[in-house]
Amino acid sequence: MTREPPGNRSSPEPIPSVRSPVLVTIPVHNEEPRIRRTVDRVMRALDAAPFPYTLSVAEDASTDGTLRVLEEMRRDHPELLVRSRPHGRGRGSALASLWTEVDAPVYAYVDADLAMGERAVVDCIAPVYEGTSSVVTASRYCPGAAVRRPPLVHAVSLAYNRIIRLVFQDGVYDHQCGLKVFRRDVVRSLLERAHDGEWFWDTEMLVLAKAAGYSVTEQPVTWQETKNSRTSWRRLATEIPVFAAAIVALKGSGHLWGPGNASVPGPRSLYPNPIPLPVRSSSDFLLRRSSDPLHTTSMAMPSLAGRSEEPNRP
After folding, report:
1. CATH number for the domain that contains residue 79
2. Has residue 65 been placed in a domain?
3. What is the distance, to the nearest Å, from the Cα of residue 88 to the centroid of all Cα atoms in its chain?
4. Predicted local confidence at residue 100, as pLDDT
5. Position 211 in a domain
6. Within-domain flag for 278
7. Per-residue pLDDT for 245 more than 70?
8. What is the pLDDT of residues 247-271, one digit of tens each?
9. % of the chain beyond a pLDDT of 90
10. In which domain, by residue range, is 28 found?
11. Cα four-point dihedral sign 81, 119, 176, 205
């Protein structure tokens, strides 16, 4: 949904087309119990922000009642932009699919669990909107952050991020926190080169951005872990091999480059037929699936693996 900032408060315009709304996306897969509350919380926070926004949902092959809830919500909020796909390929792929069809000055996404709180969404968008950073990522491990999660899960997460930091020398404390913001030119330059379509997409985008010389700012957050049905030991046993495989795949992908390297790609056009923003009507932009009169298919992005239940964030 598109909202304007309250009053006549002015803001700097360092980004071309800065009056266009920031695109804020919530990726969802089987989020029936909490998607309505998440959208309401994010909306309230963004309504108080000093920038216009369009709120969108990237739905990825949900099998519960998520689609029904989204349809109900659009009756109350017809400007909500929904992208729905029948054949899930992961959260990263769902985000990439939507972002390649919408031309916005700033792109942001936040996970549906809102483990970092809705205020963090505004805090992370502001530096990119104001032109002081190319990329902002919420961080659970940079100075000033606070984390409440099971000790073993916390230890595995710290180890994962330290390994990424050592392997890629990017200086980032937290690669997988579920809130990130990108300037338009970063998305245009890097999106096609991030080849993992699932959870590792977060890490890949940050590693690629740092390697290309973009500024990456970490915004400390207070993180409250949401309930997970798997025990910490089970998470440890199932997720570490997945983490290792993803790191090896990225290291050997040939998509890294150094700042100043002549091979650094420039921005390209991702939007041959862009969805116009701001969203204006109740019927223009609900994208539907072909197997159902309520939905159509979307373009697919490359992925290292087929769709499965994604591991929790390390």
Report:
1. 3.90.550.10
2. yes
3. 16
4. 92
5. yes
6. no
7. no
8. 666 666 555 544 433 333 433 344 4
9. 51
10. 2-272+284-295
11. positive
Tokens 């990424």 sit on residue: 164
CA dist., res. 274 & res. 277, Å (int): 9
pLDDT tens profile 24-81: 999 999 999 999 999 999 999 999 999 999 999 999 999 999 999 999 999 999 889 9
Q: How many domains does the chain have?
A: 1
Residue 164 lies in a domain: yes
List, for residues 144-202, the tens digit of each pLDDT value.
Answer: 999 998 888 888 889 889 989 988 899 999 999 999 999 999 999 998 888 777 878 99
